[in-house]
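tool_call: predict_structure(chain=1)
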Amino acid sequence: MEDNQNEQNTQKNNKLPYYIGGAIILLLIVGGLFFSLGTDSSDQNTNTLGESTQETSENDKVTDTNDPADETDGKLVEIEMQGGMYYFSTEEITVNKGDTVHITLTSEEGMHNIVIDEFNVQSDVVNEGEAITIEFVADKAGEFEYYCSVGNHRQMGMVGTLIVEE
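tool_result:
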């Protein structure tokens, strides 16, 4: 009987490292989720395009260029913006109807994309430190929301406004 008791104790002790390892992995996963969901940035800018290149911060760059090779009547407008946890560094973009718009999104933290439903634009998702460029012609006037469709980023405020003027 004593041997049976010792055998049961040995089996329990052999399983203990597995339980501890599983608990540690679970804590790491839960901690990572809380960290990624709890991080917020209040460093948000608003950019409005004018007739020339504008520097809005060290990282945001907005360029208007007139390219005669462009097939539209408008200009080529280039926007560089960053995406962080629940924000775009550029919250407002203003272009003219007919402009060709290039938006380069660089992810500063997390995974992000950019979507503009009315222009059928949806970029691939970029990981932290990566960038992606979308291109479209602003062929209709109005105010349009752009947003990140990853997880609940849109609901958490990762949105901006594209203003297309006549």
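agent: Residues 25 and 31 are 10 Å apart (CA to CA). Proceeding to next step.
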